[in-house]
Amino acid sequence: MTSLAAQKLFIGGKRVDPAGGNYFPTINPATEQTLADVAEGGAEDVDRAVTAARQAFEGPWARTSAADRGKILWKAADLLEAKIDEVAMLETLDSGKPIGECKAVDLRECINVLRYYAGFATKITGETLPASGASFVYTLREPVGVVGAITPWNFPLLLSIWKIAPALAAGNAVVHKPATWTPLSALRFAELCQEAGLPDGVLNVVTGPGSIAGHALATHRGVDKISFTGETGTGKTIMRSAAETLKRVSLELGGKSPNIVFADADLEAAARGAINGIFYNKGEVCCAGSRLFVEESAHDALLEKVQARMKKITVGDPLDPKTRMGPLVSKTQLEKVSGFVEQGKKEGAVLLAGGDRPNLPKGYYLNPTLFDRATNRMTIGREEIFGPVLATMTFKDVDDAIVQGNDTPYGLAAAVWTKDVKKAHRVARALKAGTVWVNTYNLFDATAPFGGYKESGFGRELGKEAIELYTQVKTVWVDLS
């Protein structure tokens, strides 16, 4: 594919040049060629976007009824569905995701989330309260104002819509800073929202480096709330920056999720779940099941099944419908993940498969990688790799599985595989994670809240819980005496 046209910022309902006049390339990770030159937004551009958002929030958007907000979101879902081939192509070219996953999973879920919150727009209500005395007391649930949404590159549009849809349903205006490596789908989606009837300035997109555009958004006094998804260290920086103006903050951060397989599990299903848990989306998943814990007596049998399935994973061109694993998102990410592989070997983990690159002429590819005899003390058992690298460990019994599974600073997700329903519920309760899957992995739904414990962040996206992130409660007292 030839290069796309230069991608300007989206502010106040239209594409505009960055104040500084600078552009940066976004790279196709499968070909290592430039896809497009993208506007490098800075503090002045963030200020323009926040001003546009504030004017829209206090102007036409404030006068838009909840029912009409819902209609606009539903129309945006319809337009995205009509353009699904185009947007899926942008996602694949920009991120390296297999085209089939983009269309059938990511974008379908984008549409589902938009429609879910379109229906929620008219369900955001206050309450009447039985206060003592001669007073009529009620609450109003109101939008927080201007929301700064900072999103990652691993699910570029989906994780953006997780924030944008509930924020707009609740009546907020949004300034979106997408990841530098994958900005294209966010810009296209903003255009679709405008076409759906969103007033000028309600959704703005400022592309550019997080250290400049993201920092400007987090520190801007005109921003009422920051919603961030990304790496834990960056989340801590954003929280410190937002503290200066006492912004509301919600963070969905990293993970090192335990995938726990008991000997009484359906090992064929568990092997399939282990593959899905770590190699889906090239392992570039915050809740990836990157630590596989296996009960000692089932270790050999399970790993035999896992390795057999790994051999069937097709690594290659993400535009080929047969491809199961595309390239990592960038050269930087490939080098980072490769460094973890080397560290795993140095620290004594046993490399059973992968760790090398496939024989392809171009692209940031890495073969699916399996380590055995890892521990929670090793780097590959402790740090988030964000790549197709699985570290296998063993445990003795239920208590040992719980202790080892929780031995991490993270707490985003976990999984338990067993046929014993009592054991499943006991372990699910004991694991310190925001999501626990039982006899499955990587299931999501617009109705089901998602977020982390510990250093995996706070706040819940999706479900009715997400509405709480983008609203605030006002209490009204009326004297009736």
Q: Helices, strands, pairings?
A:
Layout: E1 9-11, E2 14-16, E3 23-28, E4 33-39, H1 43-58, H2 66-82, H3 84-95, H4 99-120, E5 128-129, E6 135-143, E7 146-150, H5 156-169, E8 173-177, H6 184-195, E9 203-205, H7 210-219, E10 225-229, H8 232-243, E11 248-252, E12 258-261, H9 267-279, E13 291-295, H10 299-310, H11 331-346, E14 350-353, E15 369-372, H12 379-382, E16 389-395, H13 398-406, E17 413-417, H14 421-430, E18 435-438, E19 457-458, H15 465-469, E20 471-479
Helix pairs in contact: 1-7, 2-4, 2-6, 3-4, 3-6, 4-5, 7-8, 9-10
Computed over alpha carbons, the radius of gyration is 23 Å
Number of strands: 20
The proportion of strand residues reads: 15-25%
Residue share in helix: 25-40%
Query: Which topology of the largest domain does CATH recognise?
Result: Aldehyde Dehydrogenase, Chain A, domain 1
Number of helices: 15
Distance between the termini: 73 Å
Main CATH class of the largest domain: Alpha Beta
Structure report:
With 481 residues, the chain is an alpha/beta fold. It has two domains: 9-253 and 456-476, Aldehyde Dehydrogenase, Chain A, domain 1 (3-Layer(aba) Sandwich), CATH 3.40.605.10; 258-447, Aldehyde Dehydrogenase, Chain A, domain 2, CATH 3.40.309.10. Helices cover 38% and strands 20% of the residues. It is built from 15 helices and 20 strands. Helix 8 links the parallel strand 10 (225-229) and strand 11 (248-252). The protein starts with 8 loop residues before the first strand and ends with a strand.
